[in-house]
Design a protein that fits this description.
3-stranded antiparallel beta sheet, 188 residues, 46% helix, 18% strand, alpha/beta, 5-stranded parallel beta sheet, Rossmann fold, Multidrug-efflux Transporter Regulator, Chain: A, Domain 2, elongated, 2 domains, 8 strands
Length: 188
């Protein structure tokens, strides 16, 4: 099974190949509640979300689950050069989606379903701290950490960051190696 960028669900055949079992076994897992899946309306076909598959593979210690279902990062920043730099640096290990405004980020969030959000505090349309507050229901439902960043760190109080619901803050400029380590520690 290949890791396709932006993929949010898998067929029973995909899951069977990943687990080295038959499709019928996967169907039994879904019908028996062992693997969270759903039936396509008006069809007998079933699908499994990327998140459910990742949890299942981890729970049952099926090797190389990270190679099957990659973690997803949504990067929100209005600096196009930084977006390109971060995308290129992180794409080797993660599926990456970018947004330059709060509105773009809000529209990508439910479709892309990131595992972590890297959020600039200074956006052109809305404060990143306000965006973070609006993302709280998604964050709570999916246990998604939000890592905020800013070149204006001295102007932002740690209390404001905490009140926004962000999990951590990174001042710009940062070393890519340190940022990669921080992201890896937050998404497991």
């Amino acid at each position: 099974m290949s890791s396709e960028r932006g993929r949010t669900s898998y067929t029973t055949g995909d899951v069977a190949r990943a687990c080295n079992v038959t499709k019928r076994t996967v169907i039994k897992w879904i019908d028996g509640g062992k693997l969270k899946g759903y039936r396509i309306p008006g069809s007998r076909h079933r699908r499994v979300s990327a998140e459910s598959l990742r949890e299942f593979l981890r729970k049952y210690k099926i090797p190389s689950y990270e190679g099957i279902v990659r973690r997803r990062i949504l990067i929100v920043d209005d600096d196009r050069d930084l977006l390109e730099l971060l995308s290129d640096a992180l794409r080797g290990n993660y599926d990456v989606e970018v947004a330059a405004t709060a509105l773009e980020a809000a529209s990508r969030l439910p479709v892309f379903q990131p595992d972590i959000v890297l959020l600039d505090i200074r956006l052109p349309d809305v404060s990143g701290l306000e965006v973070c507050r609006h993302f709280q229901p998604y964050k709570a439902e999916r246990r998604v950490p939000i890592l905020t960043m800013s070149a204006y760190g001295s102007e932002i109080s740690p209390a404001d960051i905490d009140r926004s619901g962000a999990d951590a803050f990174v001042p710009k400029p940062f070393k890519l190696s340190e940022l990669k380590e921080r992201i890896a520690s937050m998404v497991g």
